[in-house]
Amino acid sequence: MADETILIIDDSAETRLLLSLRLKAQGYRTVFAADALEAITRARQAQPDAILLDLGLPGSNGFLVLERLKAISTLAQIPVIIVSAEEPAVAQAKAFAIGAAAYLQKPLAQCTLVETVEKALAAFRESAKSGV
Description:
Blueprint: E1 5-9, H1 13-24, E2 29-33, H2 36-46, E3 50-53, H3 62-71, E4 80-84, H4 88-98, E5 102-105, H5 110-130
Parallel strand pairs: 1-2, 1-3, 3-4, 4-5
Helix pairs in contact: 2-3
């Protein structure tokens, strides 16, 4: 867990700060993007170990960002965890179909956030080890 970087993509400065504080308390480093355009740029620059992605972003939406991330070879394997206030019934299925590693409904408990991030990172490490 130490020295792993999480990219938080959310248009709300308050949400970015809250998620960052929760993750930093567990030893993660965080970087931020506030909209769809910045999201791809920051992901390329930071090469994070995982991404937390809100679906409601200015200039686009989280589904399009997820599609773009999965289409870029250097970013495609990074686990993306959707963190959204959208109704999960439809959004969750669509997110998984595009390649999301997990779907979390806002507001979320700190333990749920950390547990989900740790599971996604463990699965990512395992697939990297096995060469998948």
